[in-house]
Design goal:
Chain lengths: 177, 177
Amino acid sequence: MVHADASNFEGVSSKEEVYEQLLLQAEGLFDGQRNWVCNLSNAASLLWHAYKSLPAPSCHVNWAGFYTLDPQTPNQLILAPFQGKPACQLIPFTRGVCGRAASTRQTQLVHDVLAFPGHIACDADSRSEIVVPILVGDNRVVGIIDVDCAVEGGFDDTDRKWLERLAGVIGGACDWP
Amino acid sequence: MVHADASNFEGVSSKEEVYEQLLLQAEGLFDGQRNWVCNLSNAASLLWHAYKSLPAPSCHVNWAGFYTLDPQTPNQLILAPFQGKPACQLIPFTRGVCGRAASTRQTQLVHDVLAFPGHIACDADSRSEIVVPILVGDNRVVGIIDVDCAVEGGFDDTDRKWLERLAGVIGGACDWP
């Protein structure tokens, strides 16, 4: 199979099924490859194309990707591979939905970002967001999965369940700096 | 300006003008930030949205991003941030258009990839390709810019000129491993 076909979700109908296929494809693409930049680049592409294959609200996802720990500054996230429009480079743990997920090591599912105190507007189009911490070993956070949607209520507990599984796969599949 | 607006090329008409704006936006996004993963992630987004704002053939670009040197294996490229469908993880210098650009340190402008001996088909949809080496210091290659198009003849000397300028900006703007 050529690599691009990993993002072909045609004929897969439900969100559960799309996420299940996404996880299988991610495991296939990570097989034998532990470079975190390489694997996050392909994972961002899989996420983007998975959402675009689904009905609303998922197809309105307008950003899907990753932040990792900034090697220069403790308790700060730095932009990593993503698909979507250009994004904020640095996010302190004290700021926004991403900072909250990293500092608490807990998934943040935000139905309306405008109601989230300290929300960082990298893109004025974003209306809802889910951020899942990537944890390794002894509960150490190495990064986050961040997905934004251009409509309110873009994410639910199905997204939470599968993105937490994906975070587990990614955490274990890469050598982290 | 919110970061996402950096990829707004509305009202910019010619390819020259779009590339000129892309370079200005890239320099703005790189300002004060030398992390190569962060900067390549935003640069891939700028490239993608620049092509999508242009008339055919440029709007048919189906992959835009980067490969860097594989820290594990000499004379091999490894996938870095991109926008588009999932891609080949590893490319030896001896293979394909990307390998040729890295090993020769020369831009490769390929009107028809099917006529290029040893072309690597990460995506069967790709029909033309331009690959520009990113060089630093004493002509050392640190990576490549790779852009694929779903139609033949997707790139010309205007693309070459501006992507070589972008490669110069990127090379100087980042700390490379």
